[in-house]
């Protein structure tokens, strides 16, 4: 007999968002330290993602062999059906790593909110979800904040590194939206049923062969073995930690999307970068001009408006559903009397 799925509660949704926020912040800061130009500046970025995926697979298999976790046995047909999710996942990680290497964290923070524009449109087209005036207004505020932040950051003298960073940031917005939307379909709307540990296993396992293409194209597959950091113990420990955090982020992402929505997931992803911004300034000594700080705050206000607007829409939908149930019950009662 199949076990009924646990009922999603408000507290469960809130906890899932908090866990995802923590894991996302930790992953961004760790990657920033690994590939950032002011820090380790590890140049073979596709290898970083490959190493994180390999570490994730090894850890999941080790935990499964010890009986700590359980998930489905490897099946080639399942891997093929899960491949589109992983493809978008790899694109999101790769473009995000390149954007993080070329742009300050506060710029990445603001542009993460722009992803919501794409996701809102995608949820409307694919899942029929509509949004209210507050959400639409917040999206406009977030977009304006992103434009003003980037303009103040460039200051009329864009460098090659900056332009490349913005290109990869835009590509990251597109790939993140595609990943979130397809992941929602795969986890809730398709016949493909996997446990969250199974999703994390397939995500990392299928990602490994997909990463060989960018490694071959950039030459990372050859140059990585000549990089002196490959014998640097603190760096290797940090790289291992990033693989562990990657698994945690996978699990937190799947959980958050499954108990909330793709748009809520993306909103949390944008808002939770607020502490990351200040950590980047205070701990990692990122530069933040006063006018840029104002525009970053402007974008964050848009994100908060968005969260409140989504809450209003959700409450309105619940009330409409309740009224419909009452009307249906009344209609059934009248029919029985007739």
Could you outline the blueprint of secondary structure elements for this entry?
Elements: H1 10-35, H2 45-65, H3 76-102, H4 105-127, H5 133-154, H6 160-189, H7 196-218, H8 220-223, H9 233-259, H10 262-271, H11 273-282, H12 290-337
How would you describe this structure to a colleague?
The longest helix is centred in the last third of the chain and has 48 residues, at 290-337. The protein has helices at 10-35, 45-65, 76-102, 105-127, 133-154, 160-189, 196-218, 220-223, 233-259, 262-271, 273-282, 290-337. The chain starts with 9 loop residues before the first helix and ends with a helix. The mean pLDDT is 76. The protein has one domain (13-328). With 338 residues, the chain is mainly α.
Q: State the order of secondary-structure elements, H for helix, E for strand.
A: HHHHHHHHHHHH
Q: How many domains is the backbone divided into?
A: 1
Structural class: mainly alpha
Largest sheet: none
Count of discrete alpha- or pi-helical segments spanning 4 or more residues: 12
| Strand coverage percent | under 5%
Ranges where pLDDT stays below 50 over 5 or more residues in a row are: none
- Rg, rounded, reads 22 Å
- Helix content class: over 70%
Using the alpha-carbon principal axes, give the shape: globular
Average pLDDT score: 76
Distance between the terminal alpha carbons, to the nearest Å? 40 Å
Overall strand count: 0
Main traits of this protein?
mainly alpha; globular; 80% helix; 0% strand; 338 residues
């Amino acid at each position: 007999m199949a076990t009924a799925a646990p009922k999603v509660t408000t507290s469960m949704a809130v906890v899932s968002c908090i866990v995802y926020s923590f894991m996302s912040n930790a992953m961004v800061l760790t990657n920033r330290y690994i590939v950032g130009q002011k820090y380790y500046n590890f140049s073979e970025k596709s290898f970083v993602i490959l190493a994180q995926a390999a570490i994730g697979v090894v850890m999941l298999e080790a935990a499964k062999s010890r009986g700590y976790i359980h998930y489905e046995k490897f099946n080639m047909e399942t891997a093929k059906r899960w491949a589109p999710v992983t493809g978008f996942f790899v694109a999101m990680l790769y473009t995000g790593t390149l954007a993080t290497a070329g742009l300050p964290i506060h710029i990445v923070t603001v542009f993460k909110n722009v992803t919501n524009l794409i996701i809102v449109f995608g949820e409307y087209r694919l899942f029929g979800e509509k949004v209210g005036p507050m959400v639409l207004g917040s999206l406009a505020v977030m977009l304006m904040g992103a434009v003003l932040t980037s303009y103040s950051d460039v200051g009329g003298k864009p460098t090659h590194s900056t332009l490349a960073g913005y290109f990869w940031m835009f590509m990251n917005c597109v790939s993140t939206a595609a990943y979130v939307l397809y992941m929602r379909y795969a986890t809730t709307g398709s016949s493909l049923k996997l446990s969250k540990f199974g999703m994390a296993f397939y995500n990392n396992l299928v990602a490994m062969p997909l990463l060989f293409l960018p490694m071959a194209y950039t030459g990372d597959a050859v140059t990585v073995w000549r990089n002196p950091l490959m014998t640097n113990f603190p760096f290797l420990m940090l790289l291992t930690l990033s693989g562990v955090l990657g698994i945690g982020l996978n699990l937190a992402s799947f959980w958050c999307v499954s108990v909330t929505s793709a748009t809520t997931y993306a909103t949390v992803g944008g808002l939770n970068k607020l502490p990351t911004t200040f950590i980047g300034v205070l701990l990692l000594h990122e530069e933040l001009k006063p006018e840029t700080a104002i525009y970053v705050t402007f974008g964050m206000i848009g994100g908060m408006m968005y969260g409140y607007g989504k809450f209003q829409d959700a409450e309105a939908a619940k009330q409409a559903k309740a009224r419909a149930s009452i009307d249906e019950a009344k209609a059934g009662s009248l029919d029985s009397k007739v």
